[in-house]
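Hi support team,

I submitted a single chain yesterday and got back a structure, but I'm not sure I'm reading the token output correctly. Could someone confirm the output below corresponds to the sequence I sent? I've pasted both exactly as they appear in my results page.

Thanks,
R.
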Amino acid sequence: MNLPVLRILDANFNRAREALRVVEDYARFVLDDDALCGALKQLRHDLATATSRWIDTALLTRDTPGDVGTATKTQTEFRREDTAAVVVAAGKRLGEALRTIEEYLKTVSPQDAAAVESVRYRFYDLEKCKDEFANFSAVYFSNSDYRQVPDTLSNVNLFKAVLNTYFDQHIVFDKNQQFFLQYFQ
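Hi R., thanks for writing in. Yes, this is the structure output for that exact sequence:
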């Protein structure tokens, strides 16, 4: 395998693992979703298995000081609106990295490329499942003080936030919980 392809694989192996870890930590610590966290962890391990033949060789080609892309930055990569924006950006990076790995592995190992493709599609399924039937809520505070309504607040506590804000209550929030339904045809 040629040096540029190994460098591309190395960069994207790292990008995919890092993005998966960001999404997995969001599921674990923000959503407190054991099932999603476990599924993401399994994806991370499956990716490691699918790319294991190439990781060590690709790592040997790493040249961070000589990589012209490390100095290229955009304004948006230094700012995220909230934790949801962090996980969305990580999910996009993950999909892009997996696609890149898949395409370049096709040149040397169609079997490994197919395994990475499977990981990519499974991630898309997880991403879709969480968005498909999530409850949507919106609240407007005339004083524009939304500190009581962080982006991680679930519907379980939304009414309590309204009461605390408008009626000077001090109701303690319950543990944030989210329930997702799957629709089967």
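A quick pointer for reading it: Residues 180-185 have pLDDT under 50 and may be disordered. Let us know if anything else looks off.

Best,
Support desk
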